C-alpha cells in the first residue's frame, strides 16, 4: 500500500483537519509527520466541533490508528489537555494514538525562548504562535533535544536539567522576564510526561513500513502550509519544519517511492496569520468581509487572520515542490454572493510580469488579477456536481487549468456532509 499525503498549499489554516477526518474513513492509519501544537485542525460533525493540535485528525474515526511521527515536536502538557478532552467525548484515545520515540519534546523553557526571540525581533517579529516550536526544532537540529524515547531511559532528569540550564543561560542574555510561572509549568510538565508514557511508544519507521507491507494505507496529515516551509516558504517568516511532501518521508521514516497520492488542500481565497509577504492581501472592507464570513480567526491563538484573493503563482509553486496529484478546494461557500471574485494569475515585480514566487520577501509584488463573475445561491446546500452554479464551475475550471491539477474534492461548509467528491 501507499503513503498518501494531505498538505496545506497556502499559509496554513486551509481546512486540513476537516479533510483528513473525511478521508480517514478510507484510511486505517493517519499520521502527523511535522509541526506541533502551532497547528489547529478543526473538525465538525453533527453538533460537535473540536480543535486538534497534536493528535492526528483520524482520532474520531473508530478503528483508525493515529500516529504522532518523529518529525513532530510534542508538548506533553498540551497533548494531555487535548487527549483528556477527547476522552471526555467517550473516545478511547489511548487505543487510537501511538507516539514515535524519536519525536522531540517541547520543554517549558522552549516557550520562554520563543517569547524572548520574538520580543528581541521587535517590529521584525515572525508572529510565532509562541508554542516553543522554533526553539524545539533548533535544539533538534543542534543535537541538544530531548526525545519521547528518552523518557523510558535512565538519566532523563539529568538530561532535562542540562538542557534547561542552557536555556536559562540564553534567557539571561536576553534579560527576559518570564511571562508565566516557570516552576509551576515544570512541575506540571513532569506529571504530563508520565501521562504521555501511558500511550504506546513506537519505532515509527518500523511501524509505518510494516503497516504498509501488511496492506494498510496510511494517510499523512500535514500541518501548516507549503508557504510556511522552512526551506521553500517566505523565510524567515516561516515555521521551523518541512511542510512539503518530502517532510512526510523524513517525519515517518517512509521512502519517497512509497508515496501515492498527494492531496493539496487550498482555500478558495487566501489567509495568513503572523508576519511575512502576502501579495493578494486585502486591507479593505472586502478583506474584512472575508474574515467575518469565513470566521478567519486563529484556531490556536485566536488572532484575526489576514485575508486576500486566491494566489495562483503561490499555488503553482506549492504544487510543484510537493508533486500534488489531487487538489481539494475548501470554503468556496464563503465567496457566495460576492459580485466579483478575483484571482491573482501573475505578479508584477519591479515592472516585470512573472508567475514565479520571488526570493526576496521584501520585494514589491503587485498581483495581476483576473476577475470572475460571482455566483448566486448557497454552495453549502449543493450535494451533486449538477447543483453547482455555472459561474462557480467556471472559477474551478480556471484554477484546474492554471495549476494543471484536477480539483477532486470541493468542501462547501464545515460539516462532513458538506463535501462533494468529484469523478
Ligand atoms: P495549521 O496546521 C497557520 C504561522 C504562525 C507564524 C509562523 C511561525 O493550523 O494550518 P511558529 O509558531 O510555527 O513558530 O510560527 O507560522 N503558523 C501557522 N499559521 N496555521 C498553522 O497551522 C500555523 N502554524 C504556524 O502564525 O506566522
Ligand atoms: Mg490552524
Say how many strands there are: 20
Largest sheet properties: 10 strands, mixed
Gross morphology: globular
Query: What Rg is obtained from the alpha carbons, in whole angstroms?
Result: 21 Å
Report the portion of residues in β strands.
15-25%
Q: Count the DSSP helices.
A: 12
Arithmetic mean of pLDDT: 96
Alpha-carbon distance between the two ends: 22 Å
Structural category is: alpha/beta
**What ligands are attached or bound here?**
6-O-phosphoryl inosine monophosphate, magnesium ion
Range of helix content = 25-40%
Poorly predicted spans: none
| Strand adjacency order, main sheet | 9-7-5-2-10-1-11-15-19-20
Report on the structure:
The chain is α/β, with parallel strands linked by helices and 423 residues long. The chain has helices at residues 16-23, 76-87, 93-96, 108-121, 133-141, 156-174, 182-196, 204-213, 246-252, 285-293, 312-322, 390-403, and strands at residues 3-8, 29-32, 41-45, 48-52, 65-68, 73-74, 97-100, 104-105, 201-202, 218-221, 259-267, 270-272, 306-308, 310-311, 326-330, 340-349, 352-354, 365-373, 407-411, 419-421. The strands form 5 sheets. The chain has a 10-stranded mixed sheet, sandwiched between helices. Strands 14, 16, 17 and 18 form a 4-stranded mixed sheet that branches. Strands 3-4 form a two-stranded antiparallel ribbon. Strand 19 and strand 20 form a beta hairpin. Helix 2 crosses helix 7 (182-196). The model has no long low-confidence stretch (mean pLDDT 96). The structure holds 6-O-phosphoryl inosine monophosphate and magnesium ion. The site of 6-O-phosphoryl inosine monophosphate has 22 residues, from helix 5.
Amino acid at each position: 500500500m501507499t503513503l498518501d499525503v494531505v498538505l496545506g498549499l497556502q499559509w496554513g489554516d486551509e481546512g486540513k483537519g476537516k479533510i483528513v477526518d473525511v478521508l480517514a474513513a478510507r484510511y486505517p492509519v493517519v499520521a502527523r509527520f511535522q509541526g506541533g501544537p502551532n497547528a489547529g485542525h478543526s473538525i465538525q460533525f453533527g453538533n460537535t466541533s473540536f480543535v486538534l493540535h497534536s493528535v492526528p485528525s483520524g482520532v474520531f474515526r473508530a478503528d483508525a490508528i493515529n500516529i504522532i511521527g518523529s518529525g513532530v515536536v510534542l508538548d506533553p502538557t498540551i497533548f494531555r489537555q487535548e487527549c483528556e478532552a477527547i476522552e471526555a467525548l467517550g473516545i478511547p484515545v489511548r487505543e487510537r494514538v501511538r507516539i514515535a520515540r524519536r519525536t522531540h519534546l517541547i520543554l517549558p523553557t522552549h516557550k520562554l525562548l520563543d517569547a524572548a526571540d520574538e520580543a528581541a525581533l521587535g517590529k521584525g517579529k515572525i508572529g510565532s504562535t509562541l508554542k516553543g516550536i522554533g526553539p524545539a526544532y533548533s535544539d533538534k537540529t543542534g543535537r541538544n533535544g530531548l526525545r519521547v524515547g528518552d523518557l523510558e531511559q535512565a538519566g532523563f532528569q539529568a538530561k532535562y536539567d542540562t538542557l534547561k540550564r542552557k536555556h536559562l543561560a540564553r534567557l539571561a542574555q536576553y534579560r527576559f522576564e518570564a511571562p508565566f510561572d516557570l516552576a509551576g509549568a515544570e512541575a506540571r510538565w513532569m506529571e504530563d510526561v508520565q501521562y504521555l508514557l501511558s500511550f504506546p511508544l513506537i519505532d515509527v519507521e518500523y511501524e509505518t513500513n510494516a503497516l504498509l507491507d501488511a496492506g494498510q494505507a496510511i494517510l499523512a496529515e500535514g500541518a501548516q502550509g507549503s508557504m510556511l516551509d522552512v526551506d521553500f516558504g517566505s523565510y524567515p517568516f516561516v515555521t521551523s519544519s518541512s511542510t512539503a511532501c518530502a517532510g512526510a518521508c523524513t517525519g515517518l521514516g517512509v521512502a519517497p517511492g512509497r508515496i501515492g497520492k498527494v492531496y493539496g488542500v487550498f482555500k478558495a481565497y487566501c489567509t495568513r496569520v503572523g508576519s511575512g509577504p502576502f501579495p493578494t492581501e486585502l486591507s479593505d472592507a472586502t478583506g474584512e468581509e472575508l474574515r467575518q464570513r469565513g470566521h478567519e480567526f486563529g484556531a490556536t491563538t485566536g488572532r484575526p487572520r489576514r485575508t486576500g484573493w486566491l494566489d495562483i503563482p503561490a499555488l503553482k509553486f506549492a504544487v510543484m515542490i510537493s508533486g500534488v496529484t489531487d487538489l481539494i478546494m475548501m470554503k468556496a461557500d464563503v465567496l457566495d454572493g460576492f459580485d466579483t471574485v478575483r484571482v491573482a494569475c501573475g505578479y508584477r515585480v519591479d515592472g516585470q510580469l512573472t508567475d514565479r514566487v520571488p526570493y526576496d520577501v521584501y520585494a514589491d509584488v503587485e498581483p495581476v488579477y483576473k476577475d470572475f463573475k460571482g455566483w448566486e445561491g448557497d454552495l453549502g446546500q449543493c450535494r451533486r456536481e449538477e447543483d453547482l452554479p455555472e459561474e462557480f464551475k467556471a472559477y474551478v475550471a480556471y484554477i484546474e487549468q492554471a495549476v494543471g491539477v484536477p480539483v477532486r474534492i470541493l468542501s462547501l461548509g464545515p460539516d462532513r456532509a458538506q463535501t462533494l467528491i468529484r469523478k
